[in-house]
Records
---
Amino acid sequence: MKNYDEFAEEVFREADRRLALKRKRAAAIRQYTLALASMFAIILTGTFVLKNDTVREALERKFNAQNIITDESSVTSPPADTTDSDPESYATVTTTKTVTYPQDSINSTTATTAVRTESTTTAKKSHVTTASVSASSTTASSTYKLTENISVTTARTTSLQYVSSTVTAEKTTHATATKTTHTTATATKTTHTTATATKTTHTTATVTRTTYTTTSGYYTTTTKRTYVTSSTFPPTTTSWATETTTTAPKTTTTTTTAAVSQTTVVTQPLYPDIVLPAETADPSGNTTVPVNYRCAGELSADLQVGSQAGVITIESGGVQYVCDVYSLANSSLLDYAVLYMRENQKWLLYISIVT
Amino acid sequence: MDNGVENYFRFRNGDRNALVEIIRDYRDGMILFANSIVKDMELSEEIVQEVFVKLVVKKPKYSGKSSFKTWLYAICRYTAIDFLKRTKKRKELNADAIYSLSDETDLEKEYIKEEQRVTVHNAMKNLKNDYCQVLYLTFFEGFDNTGVAMIMKKTNRQIENLVYRAKKALKSELEKEGFVYEKL
C-alpha cells in the first residue's frame, strides 16, 4: 500500500499525463478543422471563380461568333475652358459607366435584361452637378447587338445636356431547306415464241418517278427595340419604340409519282415471207424451185418428220399451199426438210431449211 | 460546510495541496468500500486512484445536494462498477494476493482500529456484494439510510430492507465462527 504522498504524486502524474494528451488531441482537432475549413474555402472560391470565368468566356464566344459589335460609348469630360483663368475651375470630373450584357445569351428562350447605367459627376469650384441615366430593357431574344451613343457636354456654366441614347437588340435566325428526289425505273421484256402459228412478244416497261421536295423552314425574326430619351437635361421622359417582325417557318412537301406501264403483244405468222419463185423448166413435169430457198418459218412439232411423211398447209399471199413432206435431209437433227409442194395438182420441189 | 468541501473548493481554485488533504481524509475508507465491491485490494486502490485522477482532470462540480463524502463515495462506486464491467470478471487471487491480503489486514487495523469491528469486517467478505456494501457504509462509514441510498442509487425503503437482510446474514456468518456482536 502506497503512502499518501506517493499516492497523491501518482494521482497528479496520471492526471497531468491525461491533461497533456487531452490538450494535444484538442490541438490536433483544431488543426484538422482549420485545414478542412481552408480547403473548403479554397474549393468554394475556386469553383466560384471558375464558374464566373466560364460564363464570361461563353458569353464572349457567343458574342464574337455572332459578330455582335459592342460599342461602349464614351463619356466626354467637360471641355477645358481656356478662357478660365482659374485652373481649378473644374475640381473633379468623375465618370462611371456600367454595361451589363444579357446574362443568358446562351439559353435564348428565357427573358434577358440589358442594363446600362451611367453617371457623370461634374464638380465645379462652387457648384456640383450630378447626372445619372439608367436604362433597362427586357427582351426574349437570344442575341443582342448593343449600340450606344452617348455624349455629354458640359459648358462653362456647368449646364449638362443629354443628347440621346439608343439601345438596339436584333435577332435573326435562318433555317435550312432540303430537297430530295427519288427516281425508280424498271423495264421488263418477255418474248414467247411458239412454232405452231404465232410469235408473241410481250414488252412491259414500268417507270416510276417519285420526287420529294421538302423545305424545312425559313424562320426570320427581327426585333428592334429602341430606347429614346428626351434631349433635355435632366432626362425626364423615356419611351420604348419596339418593332417586331416575325416570319413563320415555311414548309413545303411535294411528292410526284409517275408510273408508266406498257404492254405490247405482237403476233406474227409462222412463214410470213414465202414468195414462190417463177416456174422453171420442169424435167419431171413438175415445177421446180431453187433449192437454196430459205424459209423463215419454224418447224412445228405437228409436222411429222422422219420416216413418215406428212402434209402441211402453207398460206402466203392469200394462196394456200398444201405441201407433202417427202423426206428429211437429216431427220436426227430436225434441221432440214425436203418438201414437195403441190399447187393446182402440180408438184413443186421445195427444199426448205427450217430454223 | 465540512472540511472536505472546503478543501475541494480550494482545489478547484488551483490549490493542489487541498486535494492531498482530501486524499488523506478519504482514501482508506474509499479503498475498503471499493474492496467491498470488487473484492480485490490492489484493484480497489487503482479504483480510488482513478477517482482522484478524475477529480483532477475533469474537476466535476459539487452541487451540495448531499454531503461531500456521500458524493465522493458515489463516484467511487460508479468507478468500481465501471472497472468491473470493463474487466468482466474479478481478478483471481494470485501470488500478489498474499501481499494484498496482508495489505488489507494492515489497512483494516489502521482504519477500523477496534478489534471487534475488524472481525465483523472480515466476516462481511463472505456476504453478497450488496450486503457487504450496505453494511460497510452503515457500520464503518457511519452513513444514514439516506446517504447510503444516494450512494447506491436505491430508495430508502430498499436500503432499510437491504440493511435488515444484511444484518441477518452477517449474524448468521458470525455465529458460525462462535462470535456474538451485540450491536447487530
Note: Residues 92-99 of chain B have pLDDT under 50 and may be disordered.
---
Amino acid sequence: MSVHILPVKVYVRVFVALMVGLAITVWVATQDLGTWNTIVAMTIAVAKAMVVALFFMHLRYSSRLTMIWAGAGVFFLLILFALTMGDFDTRWFQVKGW
Amino acid sequence: MSVTERELELGHQFEDLEQQTEAYTVGMWVFLVTEVLFFGALFMAYIVYRSMYPQDFFAASGELDIALGGLNTAILITSSLTMALAVRSAMLDRWKAQIGYILATMGFAFAFLVIKYFEYSSKFEHHLFPGEHFDFKGENGEHAEMFFSLYFAMTGLHGIHVLVGILIMVALVYRTWRMRAQRQDYIPIELTGLYWHFVDIVWIFLYPLLYLIGPLGSGKG
Amino acid sequence: MSHTDAPKGTDYLHADYSIKSWLLTLDHKRIAILYLITISLFLAIGGSMALIIRMELLTPEGDLLMSDTYNKAFTVHGVTLIFFFLIPSIPAVLGNFLIPLMIGARDVAFPRLNLLSWYVFTTGGTLGVIALVVGGVDTGWTFYTPYSTSFSNTAVVTAVFAVFFAGFASIMTGLNFIVTIHKMRAPGLTWSRLPLFIWAQYATSVIMVLGTPVIAITLLLIAAEKTLRIGIFDPALGGDPILFQHLFWFYSHPAVYIMILPSMGVISELIACFSRKRIFGYEFVAYSSIAIAVLGFVVWGHHMFVSGQSMYAGMVFSVLSFLVSIPSAVKIFNWIATMHKGQIRLDSPMLYALGFIGLFTIGGLTGLFLAVMGLDIHVHDTYFVVAHFHYIMVGGAILGFFGGIHFWWPKITGRLYPEILGKLSAVLIFIGFNFTFLPQFIAGYLGMPRRTHSYSEEFQVLNVLSSAGASILASGTIIAVAYLLWSLWYGEKAGRNPWNAKGLEWETSTPPPTTNFERTPTVTEEAYAYGPDDESGEVNNERD
C-alpha cells in the first residue's frame, strides 16, 4: 500500500455531495411517497455512506484485503437482517394463510 | 535528531514499515467491521419494531427536532471533511495544518455534543425518557416508549463514540505537537480518521431513521 | 541428563523472573501462559459446579440443593465454562502461543492489544466471580428475556458485564490473529502451505470478530433495561423477547464453532503427526474450516423452533443447519483417510485425537436429529439436547484442547510428562465422558427435562450411571492436571522436537527464545511433509 494523497478539491466535492444528499433527504421527507419515503431515504443514506467510505476513508485506493473485510461486515449484517426479518415477516402466514 | 534522518517507530514484531502500515490499516478496518455489527444489532431492533408499529413510530418521531438533527448532520459531515484534510496534511508532513484541522474537527464534535445535550434535556423535560415518568400524549404510548428506548440507545451509543473520538483527538494533538520537529508517522491520524468517518456514517443512517419519519410536511410515514 | 543446558536467559521462560516481567509482558508466549492459568481457574470453578449438579441428580428428590440454588449452580457452570473457559481455551492459549511460531513471526501483530485482551478478560472474570459471590445468577447462561430483565432478582447486571468484557477480550484476540495471519507470515509461507491449525484459527477469528459485537450490544441492552429502563426487549412496551433470542443466537450459535473449530485444527496436526502422513485432502480440510465459519452464521434459528418463531423461518433454518454437517463430515472423512495406511502411534495426544473423532461424530449426528423440526419439538429442553452439546463441547472442544496441550506441552514448558499417566488419563476421560453423557441421550429421549433438580424415579438408573461417569471423568482430568504440574519441576527435559513433528514451531529451540527464531525462517515445502522414509517416528528426545 502506498500513500494516496488526493487533491483538496476531491474532498471538497465529496463534502458538497454529502451536503446536497442531506438537503435531498430532508426535502424528500416533506413529500408523501408512502413506503417509498423510507426506500428513498435509505438509498440516499447508503450512497452517502459509500462516498464517505470510498473517498474519505480511501477504500477505493485500499488493498483488496481491506475491501473484502469492509464488504464482509456489511454482508454479515445483511444476513442478520434478512434471516431475522424472515422470521418476523412470515409469522402472519400462520395466522392468515398465504 | 534531524528531520529527515529519523527512522519512524517500528515495532519489534515487524520486518519493515510497509508491513507495519498495512497491519495497522487492516486491523483498523477489522475493528470497524466489529463496530458495524455492534451498531447493527441496534438497527436490527429498530427494523423489527418499526415494521411492527409503523404508525406509532411515525407519531413518536414527530417529537424530535428535525432542525437540530439536520444541523448536527451538517456539523458531522463538515467534521468529516476537516478530518480528511487533517489526514492529508499529515501525509504531506504539514504539522501545523494537521493540528489546525484536528482542532477544527474537535470543535465540530464538541458542537455536536452540545446540541445533543440540548435535545436530550428537552426530551427529559417533556417526559420522553423511558421509565416511570414517561408520558406520551398520543395513542399507544408504550410503543412511543419503545421508539424512545431505541432513540436513546442508538444516539447514546453514537454519542459515546463521538466522545471517545474527541479524547483520541486530544491525544493526537498532543502527540503531533510534541513530535513537531521530526518526520511523523501518519498512521495514528489515519486510523483516527477512519474511526471518525465511521462515526459519521452511523449518523448518516440515524438521522433519516429517527428524525425524518414523523409528521413533516404532508408525509404520513 | 542435561549436559547441554542452554544458559539462563535465553528462552522465554527464563528471560526474566520478576512478577512485573510477567504481568507487563508483550511476549505472546507469556500471555498464552497467563491465559492458561486464568482459564484453568475457571475450568475448576465450572467443573466443580458440574460435580455438584451430578451429585444433586444422584437421587430423584431435590435433596442436596434448593431449586433456586440449583438454578444458580447450572448458570455458573454454563457461564464460566462457555465464556471463560471454552471460548478462550484454544485460541487464547494454544493459538496465542503457536500462531507466531507456526508462521515464523517474532510476535503477533499487536502485542499490546494482546496483553490488554488478557487484562480485559481478567476484569470480566473478576466481575463473574463477584456476581457469584454476591449471590449468583439464576437465568441460565442464555440470559433469556423477559426473565432476566423483568423478573430475576439475582446479579444479572454484574454477570452481563462479566460476559461483555470476556467478549471484548475475544474480539481483541480475533482481530489480532486475523492481522497476524494475513501480514506476518514468513517468506515462502503461502496460504496453501499453512498448517491447518492456522486455517482453523483464522476461521475462528472471523467468527469472533463478526459475531461477538452482536452479543456485546445485546447484553448491554439487558443491563440498560434493568438499570435505565431503556426497554428494547420489554413486552410491556411491545417488545419482542424473540428478538433477544435472534440476537443472542446470532452470536451464540457461531460461538459453538469458536469452540470446536480450533479443536479441529489441533486434531489435524495430531492426526498427521501420529500417522506420519500428509493430511489427506489438505485443501478440503482448510476450506471446510472457512465454510463452517460462514455457514455457522445462517443456522441460529434452530435453537428457536419452539420459541414462537415463524415456522417458515424454522424450515429455512432447519435446511441450512443440515448444510453445516457437510464441511464437518469432510473433516472427519479426511482424518480417517489420513490414518489409512499410516504408521499410527498411540501416544497420549493421539488418544485424545481419536477420542475426539468418535465423540464429535456422535455429537454431530445427534445434531442432525435436532435440526429436524419435528424431532426437535419432542426432545427440546430435555437431556437429549444436553447430551448432544456436551458431546460437541466436551467430547469435541475439550478433548481437542487436552490433546493440544499434551502435544505442545514439551514445547511450551520444556518438560516431558510421564507418557504412561498421559495414556491413563486420556482413557479415563474417554470412558468417563461416555458414561456421563450416553445415558443422558436416553433419559432425554424418554422425556427427562433439563434444568430441574428433581425428576421422575424411572430416570434414576440413568442418572446414577451419569453421575458415576462424571466422577471417572473428573478423576481423569485431575490426574492430568497433577502430572502436568509435576512435570514442570520433575519432568524429563524436552528436546527440540520430541514427536519428530513437522512445522516451524518444532524447528526453534525448546522452550522457544523470546524472539521465537534467531533468524526469520524461509519456508520451501508444504505443511505435513511426512514421508514413508521418515523413520518410524520413534520418540526422539535429543537435545541440542
Note: The radius of gyration of chain A is 19 Å.
